[in-house]
C-alpha cells in the first residue's frame, strides 16, 4: 500500500516531506529496515533497530525512540520505494 510522508525525521534516508512511500506488508522487517510502525497508536516511519529495540530517525535533529516496557509496537510493513514529490511552477 501507499502512504504520504510527512515531516523531516527521515531526510538523510532520502525520504522528504510530501513523498509517496510504497509499503510492503509481505516483507519481514529486519534490523536496519525502514518501516511503517505504529507506536502506542501513533504512526511513524523510522529505521528499525532490534537490539535494543528502538525506532531511529535519519536526521540528527530528531531523537531516537527507545521502546519502553509496556509500549505497544506494530510494524505495518517495510518501505520498499520512495517517490519524490516534484514541484512545477
Tell me how many strands there are: 7
Summarize the biggest pleated sheet.
7 strands, antiparallel
Low-confidence stretches: none
Distance between the termini: 29 Å
Strand content: 35-45%
Rg calculated over all Cα atoms: 13 Å
Shape: globular
Largest beta sheet: strand ordering = 1-2-7-3-4-5-6
Structural class: mainly beta
What share of residues is helical? under 10%
Q: Kindly report the average pLDDT value.
A: 94
Present the secondary structure layout.
Blueprint: E1 2-4, E2 20-24, E3 34-39, E4 42-50, E5 53-56, E6 65-66, E7 73-83
Antiparallel strand pairs: 1-2, 2-7, 3-4, 3-7, 4-5, 5-6
Could you describe the 3D structure shown?
This protein has 89 residues and is mainly beta. The protein is 0% helix and 45% strand. It is built from no helices and 7 strands. The chain has strands at 2-4, 20-24, 34-39, 42-50, 53-56, 65-66, 73-83. A 7-stranded antiparallel β-sheet has the order 1-2-7-3-4-5-6, with no helix packed on it. A hairpin with a 2-residue loop joins strand 4 (42-50) and strand 5 (53-56). The radius of gyration is 13 Å and the shape is globular.
Amino acid at each position: 500500500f501507499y502512504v504520504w510522508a510527512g515531516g523531516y525525521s527521515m531526510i538523510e534516508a532520502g525520504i522528504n516531506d510530501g513523498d509517496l512511500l510504497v509499503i510492503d506488508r509481505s516483507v519481514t522487517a529486519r534490523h536496519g529496515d525502514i518501516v511503517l510502525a505504529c507506536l502506542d497508536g501513533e504512526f511513524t516511519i523510522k529505521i528499525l533497530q532490534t537490539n535494543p529495540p528502538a525506532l531511529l530517525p535519519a536526521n540528527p535533529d530528531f531523537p531516537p525512540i527507545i521502546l519502553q516496557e509496556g509500549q505497544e509496537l506494530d510494524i505495518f510493513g517495510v518501505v520498499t520505494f520512495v517517490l519524490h514529490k516534484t514541484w512545477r511552477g
